[in-house]
Amino acid sequence: MRRLWPFPTPLLPLPPLPLPPMPPAAPRLIALDWGTTSLRARLIDGAGATLSTRSSADGILHVPAGGFPAVLQRVCGDWRAAHGVPLIASGMVGSRQGWAEAPYLPCPAGPTEAAAQLARVPLDGGAWLAIVPGLVCRGDDGQADVMRGEETQLWGADLPAGACAVLPGTHSKWAWTGPQGRIEAFQTWMTGETFGLMTQHGLLGRLMTPGAAFAEADFDDGARLGLARPAQLLHTVFAARTAGLTGERAPAALADFLSGMLIGAEVAGALAQRRVERVTLIGEAALCLRYGRALAQAGVTAETAADDITARGQWRLARAAGLLETA
């Protein structure tokens, strides 16, 4: 009998079987980044990933006396009821003006030391809120310096030993790390607050008008002056006024010119004490951009940390304290 098909019929590949859906990650922690003007709550799983985020304008300055439990219930009471997981908070909520004071921890300090000194605030139903302590260190001048909230970001940033991080803000922080991510020392620079006072309440701000866009060239010129003459800053900043009086710079560019001078002087001052070749920037993108430009002029490479480092730091502290074992 003659075969109609001289070759074996090729086998067609079978379509892949559909994979069963992955079960959603189980919440293991409620983490609160509770600052002066705002509150951010995160629901976090056992691996440190954020499952959900909520924000509120209920910073500690906006919470009336005795009002913290009500704010917590309004922001994440349903999370507590649904999941029954531990709670941890960092930031100004642990200050003397916050919910409960978490005393400062002396440097050097890492997550292990901080986890051993969490402040505990009783909540309804037998639960409690763990509040992360701030840090204190003393400089070469013998004066105390403090931070509260930034330490949690630093511990979440995976910084190696010998790293330098800069956290721009109203009170800019420069921090240096040791083994196991311990914070060895840090300094506070009141650059942001000084800029606000000068532009909003001082003579320098009289000729300034809000700019529609970042005046990059004017900022760079200011940073160059600040970097070159940090010791003469109280004289140099007056150029932000004279540049407007003489018409050398547009009113919309004067604030950026002043910002450059102040940030440049900060960078020069910090590097004069501890020279580094690379820093990690932690903070709001627009401010990190400015610091990156000033650092580049100083010959320092800057990289920006990930956005979720606060939650990562809170998760690490909770794990070090054994909170995740009870979730």
Explain how this protein is built.
The protein has helices at residues 68-83, 111-115, 150-156, 191-201, 216-228, 233-236, 239-245, 254-273, 285-297, 309-320, and strands at 27-34, 39-45, 50-56, 87-90, 105-106, 119-122, 128-131, 135-138, 144-147, 164-167, 172-177, 183-189, 278-281, 301-304. The chain has 327 residues and is an alpha/beta fold. A 6-stranded mixed β-sheet has the order 3-2-1-4-7-6, sandwiched between helices. A hairpin with a 5-residue loop joins strand 6 and strand 7. Helix 3 packs across helix 10 (309-320). The longest helix has 20 residues, at 254-273. The protein is globular and about 65 Å long. The N and C termini lie far apart (74 Å).
Determine the number of helices (DSSP H or I, runs of at least 4 residues). 10
Strand neighbour order, sheet with most strands: 3-2-1-4-7-6
Biggest sheet descriptor: 6 strands, mixed
> Average pLDDT value?
93
How large is the radius of gyration? 26 Å
Determine the fraction of residues in helical runs and give it as a percent range: 25-40%
Structural class: alpha/beta
Low-confidence parts lasting 5 or more residues at pLDDT below 50? 1-7
Beta-strand segment tally? 14
Percent of residues in β-strands: 15-25%
End-to-end span in angstroms? 74 Å
Shape: globular
Q: Would you list the SSEs in sequence order as H and E?
A: EEEHEEHEEEEHEEEHHHHHEHEH
Brief synopsis:
This protein has 327 residues and is of the alpha/beta class. It has helices spanning 68-83, 111-115, 150-156, 191-201, 216-228, 233-236, 239-245, 254-273, 285-297, 309-320, and strands at 27-34, 39-45, 50-56, 87-90, 105-106, 119-122, 128-131, 135-138, 144-147, 164-167, 172-177, 183-189, 278-281, 301-304.
